[in-house]
């Protein structure tokens, strides 16, 4: 039973290029979460998706960032026209359908994609 | 404001020592994760707990809801335990999916 998979593990882009980060959730998980870890900072929530739906994107920068989780295939975090400040580790997590407000479901994390913008 | 504080920020120990890492949070939570991250590595969920105590091997996590405090203990520490340990909480007043993270505790265990 494979865990959460992310690819690529390392991605180098020049300023102005696009970055596409992929996340395949654990088998049986239909919920995906993206987090960003900036150098010397803690992890921050970006977006929560279910299949074909964005549930909460309150942590996403307003411009250049988008996320999707299509019916088939992995979830994609897309960063257009990357800038040096986008250099970070991006982690994806997955869970079964969320529990109740009082009993959230455990999230399982992927290995991360380390994005470097030159 | 929903906040998670960890202490200490850095911890150095000798192999075999008993380790305690602390986590406190500002308001009520529904559950809390303890996570492990090796340098340049991925994130592994060690525990998720909402009350009491959980044990897995040499790791023990406890939580005191009234005091808004959780601890992660490592018994008989080993150099392979060297990593960043991160506490993350689901705050009760918010969603049941959005995690708020502490800044982590860097543990170094010397042989």
Describe this entry's structure for a reader:
- The complex is a heterodimer of chains A (118) and B (111).
- Chain A is mostly beta strands.
- Chain A has no helices and 11 strands.
- Chain A has strands spanning 5-7, 10-13, 19-24, 31-37, 43-50, 53-56, 65-68, 75-79, 88-95, 108-109, 113-117.
- Chain B is mainly β.
- Chain B has strands at 4-7, 10-14, 19-25, 29-37, 43-49, 52-56, 59-64, 69-74, 83-91, 99-101, 105-110.
- In chain B, strands 2, 4, 5, 9, 10 and 11 form a 6-stranded mixed beta sheet that branches. Chain B has a 5-stranded antiparallel beta sheet with strand order 1-3-8-7-6, with no helix packed on it.
- At the A-B interface, strand 4, strand 5 and strand 10 of A face strand 4, strand 5, strand 9 and strand 10 of B.
Can you summarize this structure?
Chain A is mainly beta.
- Give the CA-based shape of chain A: globular
Spatial gap, N to C terminus of chain A? 37 Å
- Terminus-to-terminus distance of chain B: 41 Å
Pick out the low-confidence regions of chain A.
none
Strand content of chain A: over 45%
What class, by secondary structure content of chain A?
A: mainly beta
Q: C-alpha Rg of chain A, in Å?
A: 14 Å
The main β sheet of chain A shows up as: 7 strands, mixed
| Strand and helix order of chain B | EEEEEEEEEEE
Number of helices of chain A: 0
- Over all CA atoms, what is the radius of gyration of chain B? 13 Å
Order of helices and strands of chain A: EEEEEEEEEEE
User: What overall form of chain B do the CA principal axes indicate?
Assistant: globular
Mean pLDDT of chain B: 92
Oligomeric grouping of the chains: heterodimer
**Which regions of chain B contain 5 or more consecutive residues with pLDDT less than 50?**
none
List the SSEs and their pairings:
The complex is a heterodimer of chains A (118) and B (111).
Chain A (H helix, E strand, L loop, with lengths): L4 E3 L2 E4 L5 E6 L6 E7 L5 E8 L2 E4 L8 E4 L6 E5 L8 E8 L12 E2 L3 E5 L1
Chain B lengths: L3 E4 L2 E5 L4 E7 L3 E9 L5 E7 L2 E5 L2 E6 L4 E6 L8 E9 L7 E3 L3 E6 L1
Parallel strand pairs in B: 2-11
Antiparallel strand pairs in B: 1-3, 3-8, 4-5, 4-9, 6-7, 7-8, 9-10, 9-11
């Amino acid at each position: 039973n494979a865990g959460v998979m992310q690819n690529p593990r390392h991605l180098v882009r020049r300023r102005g290029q696009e970055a596409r980060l992929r996340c395949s959730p654990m088998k049986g998980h239909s919920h995906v979460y993206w987090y960003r870890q900036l150098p010397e900072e803690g992890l921050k929530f970006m977006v929560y998706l279910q299949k074909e739906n964005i549930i909460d994107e309150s942590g996403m920068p307003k411009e250049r960032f988008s996320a999707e989780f299509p019916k088939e295939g992995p979830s994609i975090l897309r960063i257009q026209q990357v800038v040096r400040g986008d250099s970070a580790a991006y982690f994806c997590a997955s869970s079964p359908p969320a529990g109740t407000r009082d009993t959230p479901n455990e999230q399982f994390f992927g290995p991360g994609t380390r994005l470097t913008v030159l | 404001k929903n906040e998670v504080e960890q202490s200490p920020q850095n911890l150095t120990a000798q192999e075999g020592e008993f380790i305690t890492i602390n986590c406190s949070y500002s308001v009520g939570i529904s559950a809390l994760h303890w996570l492990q991250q090796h340098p340049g590595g991925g994130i592994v969920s060690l525990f998720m707990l909402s009350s009491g105590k959980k044990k897995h091997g040499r790791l023990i996590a406890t939580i005191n809801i009234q005091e808004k405090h959780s601890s992660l203990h490592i018994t008989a520490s080993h150099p392979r335990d060297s990593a960043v340990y991160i506490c993350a909480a689901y705050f009760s007043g918010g969603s049941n999916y959005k995690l708020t993270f502490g800044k982590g505790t860097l543990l170094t265990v010397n042989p």
